Amino acid sequence: MPLNEGHEGHEGFEGELGEALRRTGEGFVAEDRRELVAGGMSRGRRRLARRRAVAVTGSVLAFAVVGVGGVYGGDLLGSGSGGGTKGSSVAGPAPTEGRGESATDKAAPGAEGPREAQIPVKKMAAVLKANTPAGNWSITDENGKGHHVSAVYDDGKGPAAVSVGLYRAGESSEAGEGQVTCPDKTFVPHDACTSEKLPNGDRLMVFQGYEYPDRREDTKNWRAVLLTRDGFLVDASEYNAAAQKGAPVSRTDPPFSPAQLKTLVTAGGWRPLFKQLAVDKPVQAKPGSDTAPPAEPDGAAVQGTLRSLLPKGLTVVSKGGDGQFAYVVVDDGKGKSFVQINVQNGMGDVAGELFGSGATMLPDGRLVKVRQQAGEKGGAGVVWWTADTLTKDGFRVVVSAFNTGAQHEDATRAEPALTTAQLKEIALSDKWEKFAAK
Fold first, then answer.
1. Which residues span the membrane (predicted)?
2. What ranges do the domains of the chain cover?
3. What pLDDT shows up at residue 322?
4. Residue ranges in 247-291 assigned as alpha helix (H)
């Protein structure tokens, strides 16, 4: 899943893809959304790769996009902010300016799309105010309609952006479990996170983290997400600034404590509004059409294959991933090193962008390119080494290693634990062939 576009294009790509996934997923029941998201990711990845000069593996998009499009540690679910942009830069898809035309605004050709939720903002604002401490509120678009409410709140200790969004995860709570599971600190740096199952069967996550993983600004993002047992989401975010992005920090912490965030998202006043989130199911695409989902590799198998190909002398200290993406953090006694892999089908049409200058072709027609460059997640002294391969049938295997256990953290060693030659050997292994589309 993760796909970086190099230094210049990475954040824009992640933001555009994240926003597309969120809007595509809104209102779809569970059995529809996985196929739609998978198909949209494949097409979107190729379109965006054409628009940028370089695309190599990235670090966190797969972990940020959980299951059917949920995201950790930000407002990618669309709850917005008090005048800020939407999106998340907490080790996941970055913000994208403006809303534009969403999947819920216009259906794809040949399909009947879902309807945008039209809940009066005033109703959502009333629930928000009734379940938070007294203070001064400035509600954005108070006379409008939608599925989220954004505001600036001030209790006399400094203005803070606050937002709440209502969404449908699926027909059951299992459809959105990824939304209420605490993220891996390898990808999403945070101070605290709890996840629990409530007595009534609902699930709750309360997250205390940051707007920027590299802490280039001190904006904090605290968030609570409730997943009801019948598959609805209440997603609340707050910041210690008057906007999610672009505003100076106005207070030490966001205004509401974790307990108060829990009170807010579990408030009974949201439940009467859920019925307005029900939407029509779209007509399913015909097999073989452009919207048909690509084959998705099994994440556990990808990770297991990666571990089987690691050089001797490396100890795996943590591991994870999802679908076509997997990672391990290894240590050879000289410090931690983050290693990740993507296996991607259907990438032949962007071979020119992926493998331009510096690529070589093997006798079997595979393209190979090795890169050594600086890291791009803010960690001091981080270097990023990559071996990228593509078969003549469009099957891509790209593996990277870093000289740190997490890209947003400073380097823990001079070089990655794997050499570029070892990365190339892993990427060219015949063991990956089992993941190639037949």
1. 53-72
2. 72-97+109-277, 299-435
3. 77
4. 258-265, 271-274
